[in-house]
Amino acid sequence: MGSTVIQYPNETIRAISEFLFVETPISELEPCDLAIVLGSDYIDGTMAEVRMLLNQGIITPESKIILSGATGLLNTGKEKECIRMYRSGVEKFHISSEQMIMEDRATNSYQNLEYAKELIESDRDHFTDHSTLDSYQHILLIGKSFMLRRVEMCARRLEYPMEKLSYYGIVDREGKNIGKDSWWLDPFAVKRVYGEIERIGKYATNGDLSAF
User: Fold this and answer.
1) Of 2, 34, 69, 182, whose CB has the highest number of CB atoms within 10 Å?
2) Where are the beta strands (DSSP E) in 6-99?
3) How far from chain centre, in Å, is Cα 159?
4) Residue pair 20/148 in contact by the 8 Å Cβ criterion
5) If residue 165 lies in a helix (H) or strand (E), which one and from where to where?
6) pLDDT digits 0-9 by tens, 21-69
7) What is the rounded CA–CA span in Å between residue 10 and residue 166?
8) What tens digit of pLDDT does each residue of 144-171 get?
9) Are the CB atoms for 128 and 181 separated by under 8 Å?
C-alpha cells in the first residue's frame, strides 16, 4: 500500500496484481463514518490495523465499526471471528467497545457485506441516525488484500453505494504474506492468488458477483 512503485517480474504478474489488489493507497483514504471489517483467521493483525487507522484519523472516534464473521474454513469450531476481533480490539488495542458492533452469521465475503447491510437497516439501537448505506458519507471495507476485488464485486452485487467505498487491504507479513508486492515469491501465496481468480470466475458465473 502507499505510493511505492512495485517492480513486477513480468506483465502477467502485473495484470493479476492490478486486477485482484484494489486497495486504496492509505495516503488517499478519506475519514470514514462506517468501517466494515471482514473476518479472517488473522485476528490480532487485523485489529492492529484498525487501531492504526484510528490513530491516523481514517477511522474516527465517531465512526461505526462492524466486525463481521462467524466461523470460516480456516477456523471451523473455534469461537466466532467477530467475537475474537472484538475482544482483541478492546483488550489489546484499546478500541472503544461502544464503537464496535458484531455481526456473527457471515461465513464468506458475500455474507459479510450482506449481513452488515441487514444489520445497519435493522439494528436501531446502534444505527439510529444512519439506518441505510446511503446515509453514510464514506464507507471503508477492510479485508485480506488479495480478496478485495471479490469484495468489490460483492458490494456491487448487493447495491452498495460504490462511489462512497474505499478498500483497505490486510497482509499477514509474518505468516502467509499474500501482498501485492510479493505474492509471486511464495508457492503457497501463488496457489491462493490463482485460487482467488478461479473463485471470482465461479461465483460471478453463478450470479453471486457483479462487474456492473
Assistant:
1) 69
2) 32-38, 59-68
3) 17
4) yes
5) strand 165-170
6) 999 999 999 999 999 999 988 999 999 999 999 999 999 999 999 999 9
7) 28
8) 999 999 999 999 999 999 999 999 999 9
9) no
